[in-house]
Design goal:
The chain has a single domain, classed as 3-Layer(aba) Sandwich (Rossmann fold). Helix content is about 25%, strand content about 30%. A hairpin with a 2-residue loop joins strand 8 and strand 9. The radius of gyration is 15 Å and the shape is globular. The relative contact order is 0.14. The mean pLDDT is about 90. The structure holds S-adenosyl-L-homocysteine. S-adenosyl-L-homocysteine binds next to strand 2, helix 4 and strand 4.
Length: about 200
């Protein structure tokens, strides 16, 4: 916690939420000793739980406010969704790996977190539930997911790591009208890829 504060996370609400969510409950038991280290770890199906600093950076860039409707792409372990719920948002989250979707569906309600969980292809978003105040993508996108941009409210923000497989730039896209947005880059990261279609 102190570690990520030192690394430039200034939003106290983000730090408080990360301090409250028990990260070890989202990890495989073989990695429990490492739950509070600032590292990414396997969560099954070849995927990883993002390192706390990455979760903190994405969450801070999203500028979460209470009661906002947020769409997350890439539920994974459910940890990022729990952090957003802890900040008072309403969370919709999509996962394309059935095994991870089922695991998240089991664990989250047990520890008091109730996002709306969907098994599906995040590239398509959730047109019937939108538009969203904010959208957070937790996998590396090769291009801007246009369908998601159309499900963002005017004035809304999308935080998306974008670029080739080896390394992505963290972008914040701010939608300024139905047809326009601007984007800001916030450093480089390496995420697992955002893939098309469903797994299994
Ligand atoms: N937010 C997660 C991080 C998981 S890693 C956490 O807190 O643990 C990224 C996740 O994105 C993986 O689980 C991967 O399966 C998922 N993913 C990749 N492409 C996707 C897509 N098109 N739609 C939905 N999920 C996707």
């Amino acid at each position: 916690m102190e570690g990520i504060r030192i690394k430039g996370i200034k939003d106290d609400r983000v730090l408080a939420a990360i301090g409250k969510v028990p990260r070890h409950l989202f990890m495989d038991s073989s990695f429990l000793d490492f739950a509070y280290k600032d590292q990414a770890f396997p969560i099954g199906a070849g995927q990883t739980i993002s390192q706390p600093l990455t979760v903190a950076i994405q969450t801070q860039l999203l500028q979460v406010e209470r009661f906002e409707k947020i769409l997350e792409i890439g539920t994974g372990s459910g940890y990022q969704a729990a952090v957003l719920l802890e900040m008072g948002a309403t969370v919709y989250t999509i996962e394309r790996q059935r095994e991870l979707y089922l695991k998240a569906q089991l664990i989250l309600p047990q520890i008091g977190y109730n996002p709306k969980l969907f098994y599906g292809d995040g590239y398509k978003g959730l047109p019937t539930y939108g538009p969203f105040d904010k959208i957070i993508i937790t996998a590396g996108a090769p291009v801007i997911p246009e369908d998601l941009l159309s499900q963002l409210k005017v004035g809304g923000r999308m935080v998306v790591p974008m670029g080739p497989r080896e390394k992505q730039t963290m972008y914040v896209l701010v939608k300024t009208s139905e047809t326009e947005y601007y984007k800001e880059g916030h450093g480089t990261f390496v995420f697992v890829p955002m893939l098309k279609g469903l797994d299994k």
